[in-house]
Structure formats: structure tokens, C-alpha cells
Amino acid sequence: MKLAIVTFTANGKKISENIREKLNNSECHIYTFYRYSSGETFTFTDGKELIRNIWNRYDFIIFISACGIAVRLIAPYIEDKTKDPGIIVMDEQGKNVISLLSGHIGGANEMTEIIADITGGQAVITTATDVRKNFSPDSFAVANNLYIADMDMAKEIAVKVLSGVKMGLYSSCKCYNIPRDCFNINVSGNDEKTDTGICIDSDISLKPFKYTLNLVPRNMILGVGCRRGTDSEKFEKCIIERLKETGIPLHTIGTIASIDLKKDEKAILDFAKKYKIKFVTYSAEELNETEGEFTGSEFVKNNVGVDNVCERSAVKCGGDIVVRKTAGDGITMAVAKKHFDIDFLRRNTGLEMEE
After folding, report:
1. Nearest to 198 by CA among 339, 190, 187
2. Banded model confidence at residue 322, pLDDT cuts 50, 70, 90
3. Same domain, 184 and 81
4. DSSP state of 341
5. pLDDT tens-place string over residues 97-153
6. Contact criterion met (CB below 8 Å) for 183 and 166
7. How many independent structural domains does the chain possess?
């Protein structure tokens, strides 16, 4: 999870350094107005140019400034709640921390609470479902790594929740901490109790309710390998074609795994970023220690120190192989499926606090 903190004052810089220190994340970058820049920070002179350059590079952008400054800087780049980064604004004393944009899908609401805890300030969250402590379908989906098949239906479900309507819930996955005041469990649309509900299943065509919001588990792990410098468009086209051939929908891929030699491979990074998929890597030693039967290659072993990258990395990530290694054009791919359960109390932060 990548964060950018943008600050315009000396005290703002001090607070930003404290936030970075308390967050267990090495990709928290501080951008300081040139008059106050020092140490491990980036310098900027023009806020508009800065936001234009970093808008698509971070999951969160945190402004230590007045709300008006933040709003004017981000306004030209706001596109869609499924694409925009989480935007947080706080004053330079850390007293008020405001979730400004992408509170649910972008995770800004949860991140706001984390930042407020660090600064000892007040988290300011204005989304209706959060203010009322209601179930939010998009926050729930992101926290549990579920693909939202229909954003319009997700909005309808949120409206139903706010109206006090008890909905149906059908899930092929084990669910924990279900809010019983919100859902009737594993009922159908023909049941008198409800005609609207959520369906959690890999089959996106399954419609147990008259009005169904399909949430698909992203429980597939894509193990990959490729030649150094592989073209990003070529990589994307190859992976999508192979997934179609093997019957694995792209929206079920929740993680991409590979060897650590590929941690900066542009083609993989571009693919992961475009489709919002987590990318993890492992050392050759870790992959060699992974137990299982794999499609070995002496050529690969001589080059990277392990006989198979795609299958081993997918298994190391916690899955069981469902698609064996396929290779061509310098690109290898395998798919593994991991155990998946649902927790209605799970939250979307992507970060862990240091003790």
C-alpha cells in the first residue's frame, strides 16, 4: 500500500514524519513545500504540478493543509470512486483528520481512523452508512477482497440499508460476524422475507434474489514469470488470453505472485496496478522450500536459482494449483486457489501499525 503525504508548513512536516514512523510501511513518501524540506522528503514548489504527477501513483494521498487547498488541487483529477485514491485532509496540529474522497472503496475512512489514532486527533467521517454504523456493501467488498459485479446495484443495496430494509444473504463461503439485524441468511428471492440481497459466489450469473448484488471472491493466485524487460501490453494480452483459455475470470484474481527478482518488473507492476491486484514476491530460497509437485526446468533453475517460479510462488502464497504452468513468448503462468472466508467485521486498511 503506497501513501503520499503532502505538507506545506514546518509543523506539517513534523507531523508527517511521525505518521510515517508509526505506519509499518516503507512506501510512505513525504512531499514538503520547498521552504521546509529537509531529510528524507521530496520537495515541491507547485502543488498543481505535484498532484498531477502523483495522482495515479498512490493508494492514498494525505494533505496536511486546509480543506480548500486540497479540494482545489485534486478537483481536475477526480474520476470515479472505483479508481480515485483515498484522499485525507488534516490540519497541521493533527486535531481534525477528514476522510475527503474514496472513503469506502479507496479505504479513506479506515485510514482516517488510523491517522487520527496516531495524531491523537478526531476522525471526521461523513459517509451515511459509517455515521449510522450501518453495513456498507462497497467497504465490505474491498475489505474481504470481493469483486463488485455491479456498482449501481451496490448503491441500491446501500440505500436499502439506510432505509432499514432487511436483505437476503446467500454465500457459498463461510461467513463470520454476520449482522443479523441487516440480513436474512441463505434465503432466495422467492422467499417472502426479501426480494433484494447479496450473493457471494464465484458464479457471477447466480441470481438468488430478484435484485441481486453479486460479490465474487478474488481467491485465485496468479503465479507469473517473464523475461526481463517484457513489454507491458504484450504481458497483459498474454495473461488475459491464457486466463480465458483456462476458464479463470480475471476478476477472481486477488494476488499475483513471483520471485523477488521480478519485484520491479514493469510489465507485472503495470498489470497489477491496472487491475488493482496485490503483487507479492518470494526469494529463490523460499520458493525452493515450498512443498509440492512442480513442473521443473533446469534452464530456469540455472538462471534464477529455482526450477519453477510461477507454480511455486502461487503455492507459497497459500494456494492449491488449479492451472499448471503454461509458457510461451517468454511468459509463464500458473493459477492456484486458496481457502476463502468472509468476515463482516474485517476492515480495509492495507496497513499495520507498529507496536
Report:
1. 187
2. very high
3. no
4. E
5. 999 998 777 788 889 989 999 999 998 887 755 655 667 888 889 889 999 999 889
6. yes
7. 3
